[in-house]
Design a protein that fits this description.
Structural class: mainly beta
Distance between the termini: 79 Å
Helix content: under 10%
Shape: globular
Largest sheet: 22 strands, antiparallel, barrel
Oligomer: single chain
């Protein structure tokens, strides 16, 4: 009987189970409603990839713009329709159970289209100026979070040291770049030898309003340097604003607002930087305690409708305490692998203190005429003290793949040691006064300026290096030899390298310029042009040196035309004379001796450029191409060790630089701007008519890419990818080596940094209610630096094998893969 009942129950369950499921589904559907429709733009074209959502539930439109969204019934629901390229649309629904509603939303294109920016920036394009959005600076992943990070993704701008904010432009070195903040030239420290000592760039990214950069062929109104101009304008806040950023590398905060009935605008920024995260990732075990602190403020007081006073102040204190412990570096080949093992004693303590102040008055005489007077003072007090003893062993590494000890040192012997000592002090004071006038009438503009500057520099260099090999002192290179061991050496025992000098010099400069610019039409074509002249007179005098006085003149010009064609194109040509009078570093040779009669390095430049704006995938793109040539005379040759430049303090060479820069930027992903850059460069020099050889900055090929993306279904998740590939430059040679005998190149530089952030709030997504309404921006994320963990080297450490008398160049590798967490909030 029981078996019979069980069989009947099973039959009944199978019979009524479909009916039961149908009733359950019908009940659930009765609690919901359905919204169907097509999302289109104002041109009635369907939008693919738009998100239609409520709370945490949503769907994405297909390639026809169609969507189906299930929402709760009998309840007011706010549905959001958003797309990265369009304004967000919000619609409220309250539908009865089991109701299907047809909805066809229309999305409007966002105001900040790249097309509009291209029209506004046409004058800057004609002047060969690249502009950057300030809000993108903090988003781009890089070891140094600043405006220089974006510049290094451009063709023609190179740097193989991620810990440095310095950059080379089209074959020039670090000292050939102009940097202005609110029209005031700023400087970098003199004694910095390595990127990990630099700390912070002068430019505070949190305070920036406009960024303009020219890689060559710039106008006469800019200064006397040969490579590039970076022109920064700080914000003048009109209401309260605050910004805070924090990561494992440090923190920054800024605050701005108005006072005194809105007549005074004030902006204050504070930054702290700690490079321990990077230095500890290198192959040297250290006790590293850096402290890089920077405080800047910008005040602007509107006295009346015609007169305004601005003040820019900066205090930067960099303390660099470095106690190396051990180092292990493997190098060589597969057939002959070697390992360097170094044991250190001693430490390095460096201090860099910088004070900067600038006061500027701007008076509008009448509608077309403006006069400004600027007075600035710059003080840098620098100390470089170290005593480091390095005892090193050179080991033979086991290269037998079948061995259990593969990769380990099998045999190691004591090779020697070296002791490095330095007590270097520098006190630099630079102050100047400048008057500028600007006259405008219609589209004609005339600029004139005159500046007097004085530089007072006190410098003491005391540094030496002693090398010991198996108990014997190694004499300096190029020393006089004798027939040892048959004849004993009776000469004085001297360090391998030794510099002992003390200098005190003053340089007075008188500089003036005049420039005329105009915008007009030729037939149906639009043209821009400007031309100008500069004069620079300088006098060098000081203790125990011969006084020298020199003067140079420079002519420069630019011309651009936008033809009245169907294609949106612009052609430009610029160039002229770009002469660079020597600063203190260029007057001092490798032995610390001052040569006051060093002449200005002279450069004749020609730049041909073309801008092509076009549509691709119905999105705006722009292709920028430039060909350039530089002919240099009176060249002051130099060597580069990490970021320290040592000049020969002579004008005994000539050189040239030529290349092509190409950049394609646009919306590779809808609503985001990315770019790809390719640069080809060749630069050579000829010293004393010995023939042309590659210059230290001969970076033959450059590839850079800045790519932005987001998750389609979750557009608040942003991704930023920064890729750089540079071919190797000549370098890594000992400082005393003859460049004509040593033209080896460092390995290619390859680096990829990625950052992923979740953006809770930004300019495009604001909240009117709730606790998030107080924020303008809020995001958290992480960054992976050197994502593929590539070993890049910047210099070599040279050790001597006592038996073979051979020197080995052991690469000094840059940072390894590093993870960084970051947080950003703006009020």
């Amino acid at each position: 009987m029981q078996l019979f009942l069980e069989k009947n129950n099973t039959k009944l369950l199978k019979k009524f189970l479909p009916l039961l499921l149908f009733l359950v589904i019908s009940f659930l559907n009765a609690q919901n409603a359905t919204i169907k429709g097509v999302v289109k733009n104002t041109y009635k074209k369907p939008i693919e990839g738009a998100t239609v959502s409520y709370l945490n539930n949503g769907v994405t439109t297909n390639n026809k713009g169609e969507f189906v969204l299930i929402i709760p019934a009998n309840k007011e629901i706010s549905v959001l329709i958003n797309h990265i390229s369009y304004k967000t649309l919000e619609k409220k629904f309250n539908l009865p159970s089991n109701k299907t509603f047809r909805y066809y939303p229309i999305l409007e294109i966002k105001i900040e289209e790249i097309d509009e920016v291209l029209v506004k920036d046409r004058k800057k394009n004609a002047e060969g100026i690249f502009t950057v959005k300030p809000e993108d600076i903090t988003k781009i992943p890089s070891a140094n979070n600043g405006v220089e990070n974006i510049l290094m993704t451009l063709a023609g701008v190179n740097n193989n040291n991620e810990l440095s904010t310095q950059y080379n432009v089209r074959g020039g070195n670090f000292d050939e770049n102009l940097v202005y903040v609110n029209g005031i030239e700023v400087y970098r420290p003199f004694l910095v030898r390595s990127g990990q000592q630099e700390g912070l760039s002068f430019v505070n990214s949190d305070l920036i309003q406009n960024i303009q950069f020219s890689a060559g062929g710039f106008q006469a109104k800019y200064g006397d340097k040969m490579s590039s101009v970076l022109d920064i304008t700080y914000k003048t806040p009109k209401k309260f604003e605050a910004d805070f950023n924090a990561s494992l590398l440090g923190a920054s905060a800024s605050i701005g607002g108005t006072l005194l009935n809105n007549k005074l605008s004030a902006l204050l920024g504070i930054r702290y930087r700690d490079n321990s995260l990077f230095v500890n990732s290198k192959n040297v075990e250290t006790n590293y305690n850096p402290s890089f602190i920077d405080v800047q403020n910008f005040l602007s007081y509107q006295v009346n409708s015609k007169f305004k006073i601005d003040f820019l102040g900066n205090i930067a204190i960099n303390n660099y305490n470095y106690i190396p412990s051990t180092r292990r570096t493997k190098f060589g080949t597969l057939s002959n692998p070697l390992e360097l093992i170094v044991y250190y004693e001693g430490q390095e303590k460096d201090k860099f203190k910088t004070l900067f102040g600038a006061l500027k008055g701007n008076y509008q005489v009448y509608k077309n005429l403006t006069i400004s007077l600027t007075t600035t003072a710059y003080s840098s007090i620098e100390e470089e003290y170290y005593d480091i003893l390095a005892s090193y062993n050179l080991g033979v590494v086991n290269n037998d793949f079948s061995s259990n000890n593969f990769g380990e040192v099998e045999f190691s012997e004591n090779i020697g040691s070296q002791l490095n000592h330095a007590r270097n002090d520098l006190d630099a004071l630079v102050y100047n006064s400048e008057i500028k006038t600007t006259y405008k009438k219609n589209k004609l503009q005339l600029d004139f300026g005159i500046k007097f500057q004085q530089e007072d520099i006190k410098d003491r260099i005391k540094e030496w290096e002693v090398i010991d090999s198996l108990g014997f002192n190694v004499r300096p290179p190029h020393h006089n030899t004798n027939n040892q061991p048959y004849e004993p050496f009776t000469g004085e025992i001297t360090p391998y390298q030794h510099i002992n000098s003390q200098n005190h010099i003053k340089i007075d400069r008188l500089v003036w310029f005049a420039q005329l610019g105009n915008i007009s039409n030729w037939k149906n074509h639009k043209i821009w042009y400007n031309f100008g002249i500069r004069s620079h007179n300088w006098n060098v005098n000081g203790s125990d040196i011969e006084t020298a006085n020199q003067i140079i003149y420079s002519l420069r010009g630019q011309f651009a035309i936008q033809p009245n064609w169907k294609k949106d194109m612009l052609f430009r040509i610029s160039g002229g004379m770009y002469n660079q009078p020597p600063f203190y570093k260029e007057l001092r040779d490798a032995e610390g001796i001052i040569h006051p009669k060093v002449d200005a390095q002279k450069s004749l430049q020609l730049v041909l450029g073309n801008d092509l704006s076009f549509k691709l995938w119905n999105r705006p793109f722009k292709l920028v191409s430039e060909i350039y040539f530089k002919s240099l005379t009176n060249v002051n040759t130099y060597t580069v060790d990490n970021v320290r430049i040592r000049y020969s303090a002579t004008n005994n060479a000539k050189a040239y630089a030529t290349g092509i820069d190409i950049r394609l930027n646009g919306e590779f992903v809808p609503g985001t701007e990315s770019w790809v850059s390719i640069g080809l460069l060749k630069t050579e020099e000829n010293s004393n008519n010995l023939g042309y050889i590659s210059r230290p900055t001969d970076q033959r090929f450059k590839f850079g890419m800045l790519f932005q993306d987001y998750v389609p279904n979750i557009p608040n998740i942003k991704m930023y990818l920064n890729l750089v590939y540079n071919t190797g430059v000549p370098g890594g040679s000992p400082s005393y080596a003859n460049a004509y005998n040593y033209q080896n190149r460092l390995n290619d530089y390859k680096r990829a940094d990625i950052g992923i952030s979740y953006v809770f709030i930004d300019a495009k997504n604001q909240y009117n209610t709730g606790w998030l309404k107080s924020f303008k921006e809020l995001s958290v994320g992480f960054e992976i630096f050197n994502m593929f963990d590539v070993q890049n080297s910047i210099t070599n450490t040279w050790v001597r094998d006592a038996y073979s008398k051979q020197f080995y160049g052991i690469p000094n590798y840059m940072t390894q893969r590093v993870l960084n967490l970051k947080f950003n909030v703006k009020f």
